[in-house]
Write a structure and sequence with these properties.
Layout: E1 2-6, H1 13-25, E2 29-33, H2 44-49, E3 60-63, E4 66-69, H3 71-81, H4 92-107, H5 110-115, H6 125-134, H7 136-156, H8 167-181, H9 188-199, H10 201-212
Parallel strand pairs: 1-2
Antiparallel strand pairs: 1-3, 3-4
Helix pairs in contact: 1-3, 1-8, 1-10, 4-8, 8-9
């Protein structure tokens, strides 16, 4: 069985992507949570993860003796192992577009990722109002998301980005939680997509797990002093 090493569900956006992909697709796997205690070299987290991957980061997928790290590499491996799940769109052009938007997410949206850290359990609308006012990079990133998602929803007819659930939806799931946590303004059609994605069983299961965690990690909490 596949084994997926992840960090805290409340905070680890990169872990969320392959977990949601596997869960929503109904692919069996064993979850291994490696709690964030700190990211120092002598932390328990680093000591555990460094035995698996040279990057010292989660997520990590283990399949027998094979270790795969980085979310895109994990997604590609899972798609190849389970071709009947159609985790990428079947159409060649749509598949290329899906890979493009995932790669854009992988390397971009730095403003949104920097100023709106993932924190599913929190409600940070007041902070979101100030971030929206003061951080032009966040407004630019959200505008790009709105344009991208609207084009894809219009082109493929919804309800998800490429019609049915794909790696692209799993890839943007953590961003959707950020948009909700910070209550950033969205057009109604995009807010509806965010709601649909968060209601998918695989996404909701992750969110429920995040809400059930009791950790409060100061280094992950730039806007709160306590739960």
């Amino acid at each position: 069985m596949l084994k997926l090493y992840i960090g805290n569900k409340n905070y680890s956006s990169w872990s969320m992507r392959p977990w949601v992909l596997l869960k929503q697709a109904g692919i069996p796997f064993q979850e291994v949570i490696v709690r964030f205690d700190s990211f120092a070299a002598d932390s328990s987290f680093k000591k555990t993860i460094n035995t698996l991957t040279p990057t010292g980061k989660v997520p990590v997928l283990v399949d027998g003796e094979l270790v795969v790290w980085d979310t895109l590499a994990i997604a590609e491996y899972v798609a190849e192992q389970y071709p009947d799940q159609h985790l990428w769109p079947l159409d060649r052009a749509a598949r290329a577009r899906a890979r493009s938007v995932c790669a854009e997410m992988h390397s971009g949206f730095i403003g949104l990722r920097s100023h709106c850290a993932m924190n599913i359990e929190a409600s940070l609308a007041d902070a979101g109002t100030l971030i929206w006012r003061d951080q032009a990079a966040v407004r630019t990133d959200v505008a790009r998301l709105v344009t991208m998602w609207q084009e894809l929803l219009n082109q493929h007819g919804g309800p998800l980005l490429f019609g049915h659930f794909t790696i692209a939806d799993a890839y943007f799931a953590p961003i959707c939680t950020r948009l909700k946590t910070y209550a950033l303004p969205l057009p109604p059609a995009i807010a509806a997509y965010v709601a649909r994605l968060c209601a998918l069983p695989g996404v909701k299961s992750w969110i429920d797990g995040a809400l059930a965690e009791q950790d409060f990690l100061v280094f992950e909490e730039p806007y709160r002093l306590k739960r």
